[in-house]
Recover the amino acids of this structure.
């Protein structure tokens, strides 16, 4: 998907091109707060780990293991919907009500040590756990965008010549994914007038 916007301003022709960016790196390769442990027959998802899910009888037992053995202090479930593509979430909501195509595939968690490092705090209070929970939810959302191919970039043109470009904006809403924040004012106005 490519969108192109053009306009002439004071005898100068400017153009903005927004495009789906491929190939793109997995956000799980970044310095994340959370560790994502997933199991699926057909897909390799999340972060590398050596936890064998067949050693457990339920998701609750795996969660208990993460707390006791991995020192997890904030844990969220990860659900997946697999139908003509995959999407993941920390919430089991529509369209995840279809038990044939949807279900839990793992967890994302963080430790107190990681919270202290990530937020540069000495003590992990409920306030910091709540903030960590929000970061973990954002990490799953960004990874979901990656899995769905919703990663974008832009190119700026002036009189037909490319003058700037940037890639790696996750999510298909250009206002919330940060792409518009990188545009010079006249290019941002060009986009906003068209949308």
């Amino acid at each position: 998907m490519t969108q192109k916007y053009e306009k002439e301003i004071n005898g100068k022709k400017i153009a903005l091109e927004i495009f789906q960016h491929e190939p793109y790196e997995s956000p799980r390769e970044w310095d994340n707060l959370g560790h994502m442990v997933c199991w699926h027959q057909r897909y390799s998802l999340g972060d590398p780990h050596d936890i064998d899910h067949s050693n457990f009888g339920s998701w609750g037992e795996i969660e208990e293991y993460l707390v006791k053995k991995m020192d997890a202090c904030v844990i969220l479930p990860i659900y997946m919907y697999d139908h003509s593509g995959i999407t993941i979430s920390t919430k089991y909501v529509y369209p995840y009500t279809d038990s044939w195509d949807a279900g839990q595939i793992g967890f994302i968690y963080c430790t107190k040590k990681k919270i202290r490092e990530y937020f540069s705090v000495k003590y992990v209070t409920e306030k910091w756990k709540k903030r960590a929970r929000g970061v973990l939810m954002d990490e799953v959302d960004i990874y979901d965008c990656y899995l769905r191919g919703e990663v974008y970039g832009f190119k700026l043109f002036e009189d037909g010549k490319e003058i700037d470009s940037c890639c790696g904006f996750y999510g298909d809403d250009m206002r919330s994914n940060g792409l518009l924040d990188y545009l010079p004012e006249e290019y941002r106005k060009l986009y906003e007038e068209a949308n």
User: Anything to note?
Assistant: The beta strands are 2-9, 12-20, 35-38, 72-82, 86-89, 102-111, 151-158, 161-170. Residues 2-24+159-194 form one domain. The mean pLDDT is 92. The first helix runs from residue 59 to 69.
